[in-house]
Amino acid sequence: MGKTFAEKALGRAAGYDVVANQVVTVEPDWCMSHDNGAPIARTFKKIGVKNVWKPERIVFILDHAVPAPSSDHAVNHKEVREFSAEQGIKHFYDVTSDGGVCHQKMCEEGFALPGLIMVGSDSHTCTYGAYGAFSTGIGRSEMAAAWATGKIWFKVPESMKVVVTGKFKPGVSAKDFILKFIGDVKADGADYMSVEFHGDGIENMSIAERMTLCNMGIEFGAKNAVCRPDQKVLDAIKDNAKCDRWEPLWADEDAVYAAEYHYDLGDIEPGVAKPHKVDNYAPISEVKGTKIHEAFLGSCTNGRIEDLRAAAAILKGKKVAVRTIVIPASWIVYRQAMREGLLDVFLDAGCVICNPGCGPCMGNHEGILAPEEAAISTANRNFKGRMGDKDSFIYLASPMMVAASALKGEISDPREAL
Amino acid sequence: MSEILKGRAWVFGDDVDTDLIYHNKYLAETDPKNMPQYAFEYYPGKEHFAKEVKPGDFVVAGKNFGCGSSREHAVYCLKYAGIPVVLAETCSRIYYRNAINNGYPVLFVKGISDAIKQGKINDGDQLEVELSTGTIKDVTSGHEFHGDAVSDLENDIMQAGGLMEYLKAQAAAKK
After folding, report:
1. Which residues of B touch A363 (CB under 8 A)?
2. What is the ipTM of this complex?
């Protein structure tokens, strides 16, 4: 009987053969925390251990509210700085032009690597599966415990196989596919499971698109989500891998799955997740014309250079009809967008460009919604009130649809704006 | 452990996300004891939960309770409100881990999602819950439900009072 990716990755880390539903204790390759490193540090200090197990395995990336919009946030940032200094944590991305959204940084800085066990005190840590890592989000107490002991327990998950073939038609992207998929399997469709994306449809995708898929894994309950680490990944990590512990792993052909789905990307059309659930899918035909008050392009889901290019191609030479907030996912992305002239395209179109970070995604700052306002957003969650007032509305969509909608002030079909 | 817990039910639907349980507006709060005042503030029709909840009341929910963020606030705000156990059909993986790691029980109750939709269990119903057997009696409606037991490791962590206490006990045992 063949093995799934999760069985191989957790077995490699445990040092022995494992099967689904077995409980294993492993040492994480990386432990990532963002602004919540501060409360985790406080919890860590209560355990009674003086030093973290391996300071070189801990990564801090401030992103949730940067620069600090309130003194509470500022205190958190200050404590992360102090704790990093005390503990000798070198992988620290402060509020500087080296920073950005934590998941983007983990990937572009070479932390996300095939076969590694990666945990983060953020639910979208599942993003690193785009590089073939076993990565998953954990809570704060658990992160404090991992720092202290260098150990974390996992139940080896059962796996779901999603076979994706073909190519997108113009105006359609990875976001449209994953929103449709979540609409089909629902928000608990992969609860506790490892989700593997297979097929030539995935091979055809850029790493950025695969990151969009894996990032949204948590939105249908996945423990982790992963794509095969192919040549595109090996080329990307060749010069910047942060460690040599990695190894490309993939599921055997005869691995056993708890569920299997098949999709042809050529069948996918532009779509959205309507308020207030990510599985509340609707194709463009059902929501076209819905009035919006804000458009947001950014986040760990869709703030990469590929996303900015796709949006800029639609906005070029035109004017937005509603306030449009553009937040590149990192300063590396920001500089690249600047070099390519994309920032000029956004500014000429009337967009506001903010500094890299999470921005308004979870309602901290830079684009909070008023009562009765609706936003179209490239982020990953549309929970009630997430971007501001409890009586506001969020539609999740692709960068192309966000750009097309920004031009009209209503939800619009990107295929008509190409 | 044959103790029977008695209290009122607060009934919720499927896919209750972490922003509905504890909104991200209050994430900068880090003292668990201050978190109950914000519980379910964004849940339509349950805005009064924080004011009216009494220690011993139960949270009853359908499928995928606690989906979304990894915030532990969503566990603390119920634990420190005195809710002894969450009764749900299923809950999200991170929520479940956070609960276990804080020594807080979640009982998985087969059929409760449908029972909620069919009105077999309602807000304010008097419940009797026996954690050791997983038996739940709705005294008001007369319906009975059954929850699953947790795994050995999870039970060990719970019995120790949470992950911190479990780790401390393990470290002490090694010495």
Report:
1. 24-25
2. 0.89
Nearest chain A residue to B47, by CA: A390
Q: Average pLDDT, stretch A342-354?
A: 98
A117 DSSP β-pair partners: A134
- For chain A, what is the mean pLDDT? 97
Q: Where residue A341 falls among pLDDT bands split at 50, 70, 90? A: very high
The answer to whether A395 and A272 have CB atoms below 8 angstroms apart is: yes
- Who contacts B96 (Cβ-Cβ below 8 Å, separation ≥6)? B66, B106
What is the spatial distance between Cα A415 and Cα A234, in angstroms, rounded to a whole number?
33
Say yes or no for a CB contact (<8 Å) between B15 and A277. Answer: yes
The answer as to CATH 3.40.640.10 being correct for domain A274-416 is no
CA-CA distance, B87 to B137, in Å (whole number)?
A: 12
Q: Which CATH architecture has domain B4-174?
A: Alpha-Beta Barrel (3.20)
**CB proximity under 8 Å: A 54-73 to B:** 70, 72-73
| Structural domain boundaries in chain B | 4-174
pLDDT, tens digit, 9 for 90 and up, residues B135-147: 999 999 999 999 9
Please give the mean pLDDT across all residues of chain B: 92
The residue among B128, B125, B76 whose CA lies nearest residue B107 is: B128
* Mean pLDDT score, A101-106: 98
A218's tokens: 């948590």
Q: What is the pLDDT of residue B155?
A: 81
Residues 6+ apart with CB under 8 A from A385: A363, A391, A392, B19, B23, B25, B42
- Given this model, what pLDDT does residue A118 score? 98
Query: CA-CA distance, A405 to A409, in Å (whole number)?
Result: 6
In sequence order, what DSSP letters do the residues of B56-122 get, joined into one string? Answer: T-EEEE-SSBTBS---THHHHHHHTTT---EEES-B-HHHHHHHHHTT--EEEBTTHHHHHHTTSS-
Greatest Cα pair distance, chain B, in angstroms, is: 55
Q: Which fold has domain A5-242+257-263?
A: Aconitase; domain 3 (3.30.499)
The verdict on a CB contact (< 8 Å) between A362 and B24 is yes
Strands (E), A265-316: 271-273, 281-283, 294-297
- Asked if A383 and B90 come within 8 Å (Cβ–Cβ), the reply is no
Do B163 and A121 lie within an 8 Å CB cutoff? no
* Contacting residues of A for B19, CB less than 8 Å apart: 381, 383-386
